[in-house]
Amino acid sequence: MLSEADARSDPGFPDEEAARILFPDGLVGCPDWRQFALQPGPAGSPVSRLRCLSEPSVCFVVVDPRHVQPDYSLAAARDQLLDLGLDAVEDALVFCTLAVRGEPPVITANLLAPLVINPTFRVGKQVVLAESGYSTRRPVALPARSRGLHAVQEGV
Amino acid sequence: MLVLSRKAGQSLVIGGNVVVTILEADGDRVKIGVEAPREIGVFRGELFAEMRYENWLAGAAGACADQVLLPLLRDVQPSRA
């Protein structure tokens, strides 16, 4: 549960807008990361935050992978989605996690293992698009080159 | 860790619904067949390690997002404000 202190120190992500999401199996390699709170990102930004309530040192910044790759498809994971109880895959909320790596730092998106959420039941699962060719570390911006407006606009 | 020896053609069962069969053993190379429910992802161990690492990296980056990730993102995202 987010404390009032968290909400106060983080005015961009008010506590009352948080939605609790259960990942019954945890994440891949991190089976204890089960409870999350989904919070909107800064105004005007496509990102959201997925704060891990089971492990307070963990919080993801996530984005719909179609912002990174417009033709992104979950087809390779269709079977893995069966236990989410979705009527249609299109009903799912789909997010990829963002990480920062390298010097100068670059933001990368994990397109290989997206987080898929059934917003009706508020349950989620990290699926693995094993034979898809998607990367765990797809660069989404090239800040060193030009402060990257072009690079991201191409990607969005 | 459970350690056991199997010959080609023999199998083992995990959790009552996953069957791992040794199809062929040739020197240091073993061919394995896996039967599992469709909703269970099956993938190579290297991929598992990569995804675990990526989850830790992303989980840490998001935890201090106000300091690094979000400013970096603001620099590269066109503002809609």
Description:
- Chain A is mainly β and 156 residues long.
- Chain A contains 3 helices and 9 strands.
- Chain A has helices at 4-9, 143-146, 149-155; strands spanning 19-22, 35-40, 48-52, 59-63, 93-101, 106-109, 115-118, 123-126, 138-139.
- In chain A, strands 1, 2, 3, 4, 5, 6, 7, 8 and 9 form a 9-stranded antiparallel sheet that branches.
- The longest helix of chain A has 7 residues, at 149-155.
- Chain A is globular, with a radius of gyration of 16 Å.
- The model of chain A is unreliable at 1-14 and 142-156 (pLDDT under 50).
- Helix content of chain B is 33%, strand content 25%.
- Chain B has 2 helices and 3 strands, in the order E-E-E-H-H.
- In chain B, strands 1-2-3 form a 3-stranded antiparallel sheet, with no helix packed on it.
- In chain B, strand 1 and strand 2 (18-26) form a beta hairpin.
- The longest helix of chain B is centred in the middle third of the chain and has 19 residues, at 45-63.
- Chain B is elongated and about 55 Å long.
- The termini of chain B are far apart.
- The mean pLDDT of chain B is 89.
- Chains A and B meet through strand 3, strand 4, strand 5 and helix 3 of A and helix 1 and helix 2 of B.
Quick tags:
heterodimer; A: mainly beta; 9-stranded antiparallel beta sheet; 9 strands; 28% strand; globular; disordered C terminus; B: 2 helices; 33% helix; 25% strand
Strand order of the largest sheet of chain B: 1-2-3
Overall SS class of chain B: alpha+beta
How much helix, percentage-wise, in residues of chain B? Answer: 25-40%
Shape of chain A: globular
**Low-confidence runs of at least 5 consecutive residues of chain B:** none
The description of the largest β-sheet of chain A is: 9 strands, antiparallel
Question: Secondary-structure element order of chain B, as H and E?
Answer: EEEHH
Main interface pair? A-B, 56 and 39 residues
The shape of chain B, in one word, is: elongated
Helix content of chain A: 10-25%
Global mean pLDDT of chain B: 89
Mean pLDDT of chain A, nearest integer?
Answer: 82
Distance between the termini of chain B: 55 Å
Q: Care to count the β-strands of chain B?
A: 3
Strand content of chain A: 25-35%
Annotation field: number of helices of chain A: 3
